[in-house]
Write a structure and sequence with these properties.
Arc Repressor Mutant, subunit A, disordered N terminus, 6-stranded antiparallel sheet, Jelly Rolls
């Protein structure tokens, strides 16, 4: 059976996009308030489907999560035929129409849509001139790093963002910079080596983190403390500390939890909340990863 449909890529409410595609939406992050990025999982039980999309408003990344299938794609004046495998990725830039025809097997796919404004923010902070580059239509391609970051975002969607905004924003930045480096007409060199946070700026950021460990911190919040952009802050902080802001925050939460375990009689669940973890199990997971021990063992 071959079915032909068309669809648009507006910011639809959960459930609307799968109605237009004729697919079943298995998961969506649209109600989670992520900034400029939408992660959705779809499943299609039809053996064959033909879909033509008009130009989209967002950059659209699709990753196969199902069995092999024959796929015909058209983007601009290019036609591409291939056998799409699990882990393969497809990128359709904003403003470009596309045509897809799949034959064979259940289609299980992960879709990540990125707002152009988000790309611009990250590019500007990374000293990339967007006037010199454009995303290109990427047909079926294996990209292990891209797949790993996409799967981490997918896992966060499944867990309702349990790791917090700082982690999600960090993953989003890694994804966007990877796309800019490898899926554009110009491979930019991201340069921040000749700049660094002053000792005062670094101490201000660290003091703010220590004071607000119990909050769901974001890159924008931390960057505002010293008056620079979130992406630039992330780059310079890692340059100064050797680890990302998210990793540093996790380390500090674990260290504070360790002190409270040794010096107070508070329940482990209460300590988890006070140091900024979403639950006792989240604390235990990160505590064991950092120290090699569980909170109960330390106590």
């Amino acid at each position: 059976m071959l079915k032909t449909e068309s669809a648009t890529d507006s910011l639809l409410r959960p459930g609307e996009l799968n109605q237009r595609l004729g697919k079943t939406m298995m998961l969506s992050n649209q109600e989670m308030g992520w900034n400029g990025i939408f992660v959705e999982q779809y499943q299609d039980l039809l053996n064959s489907r033909e879909v033509e999309f008009p130009a989209t408003s967002n950059h659209w990344l699709a990753l196969s999560m199902g069995p092999p299938a024959h796929l015909t794609q058209k983007g601009g004046d290019r036609l591409h035929e291939s056998i799409i495998q699990k882990g393969d990725s497809i990128l359709v830039p904003a403003g470009q129409p596309s045509y897809w025809c799949r034959r064979g097997g259940i289609c299980d796919s992960l879709h990540i849509r990125l707002k152009p404004e988000l790309i611009e923010q990250i590019a500007e902070a990374s000293e990339i001139d967007l006037k010199q580059i454009d995303f290109v239509n990427c047909f079926v391609q294996q990209d292990l790093q891209l797949h790993q970051v996409a799967m981490l975002l997918f896992a966060e969607s499944q867990s309702d963002g349990v790791m917090g905004r700082l982690y999600i924003e960090s993953l989003t930045q890694v994804l966007v910079i990877h796309l800019l480096r490898h899926y554009s007409t110009f491979a930019p060199i991201i340069t921040s080596q000749n700049r660094s946070l002053t000792r005062t700026q670094l101490q201000q950021a660290i003091d703010y983190i220590q004071t607000h460990l119990n909050r769901d911190l974001s890159l924008a919040e931390l960057a505002s403390v010293i008056g620079i952009s979130p992406t630039y802050f992330a780059s310079l902080f890692k340059q100064a500390m050797g680890i990302s802001p998210h990793q540093y925050v996790i380390q500090q939460r674990v260290e504070r939890a360790k002190l409270m375990l040794l010096r107070t009689d508070l329940a482990i669940a209460d300590i988890a909340v006070q140091v900024g973890f979403s639950s006792q199990s989240h604390l235990t997971q990160q505590f064991k990863r950092v120290t090699g021990l569980t909170p109960k063992q330390v106590r």
